[in-house]
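Suppose you are handed a protein chain with no further information: no name, no annotation, nothing but its sequence. What can you learn? This example shows the usual starting point.
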Amino acid sequence: MAAIATQPVTIPEADLPNLDSISFCQASLDGKLKKICDDFIVSQDPELFNDLNTTKAATALGRADDGALKAAAQQLVDEILTFGETSYDDILGVKNDSSPEEVLRSWRLRGCTIRPYLSHGEAPLQQSARKAFIDSEALMRAARKKSIRERDIYEVVEWEGLVDLNALPDNDGTPPTEASVKEPPQEINHVYEKATTDMVALKLNPQDVEVRKRLNTHNLAIMEHNKKMGKIRRDLYQWIIPFEFFSPQYMEAAKRYKSLDDKPADEVVAKEIDKLKEVVDAKIMTHHFKQSWSIPSASAYVDSSKEIKKIMSCVTAYERLNISTDTDEATKIAAFRSIISRMHPVFAFRHDADEALKRIIPPPPPPPPVSVAHREPRQV
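A reasonable first move is to predict its three-dimensional structure. Written in structure tokens, the prediction is:
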């Protein structure tokens, strides 16, 4: 088991190679994917799974439509949202003198009760669950304030409904970082490359159903590969694309970028964006995802936005590239690459970036005139 890296990491923004959710959960699998998993599991030795799905809580994600579970989640969410942001004990359902073990068990119970409904169930339940768990981070903030390890926090955030977290050994020899996450094989990297276009689309609209379906398809391909490698139950999910983690991060970042459009010097918003970037970058670096799945820092967003606005206000291509009319070809290319590098961080967050790009790319030269062979008039 692995936890998120505790040291902030930052992905470079200017030199990304190209323009290329909380974890993928069982309840989001389509019928075909679930059947593949179930068929594979049935074919395995039952003894391999004795420690799995041993509690009602551990099967919640497979039963997201269960009325009793849904009602329990709604009741818990409503309770959490009644407390003040700093009522950490109340939010976690513990006392000030509760033992660390009691606090951890309560975090797991409450987190896993709400977790299935971050992306499933009726819209009002999803919205309130996200508010209690992600948007205001009430539950996660309380867990951190009560000194719960990042590893234990993110095991709940990324819980797939396949194991009882309380049944797992507390010390399995894994250090409290995700440095032990193995690099994916080349086949998985190919899937990541194919998925990058959809990850960019997810930034543009984190709730796009069709984009999520395509990302599910990529995850199906990853699980198919894991199945061929002989991996069992939990390991079938290794290397999947956690768009349920990325989606809310992109959504929150987009809101704050919009605020920067109105107030570029807003330091509070800038700090919130950079905090989001730290979380996203840590996830990407730890799990070997594509760097282009990251988000721009506040300063990079502001600088890129200025560049786009400047391009849109210029009349000629020379003005847009900030070069003179007699500039040689090599300098033109260097200027073009420099502008693209500065614009790149915001391509997926500014809808005018595409238009700005079109304005600095010169149109293709007109086709050469078609020569018509001269023919002597026919003599009658």
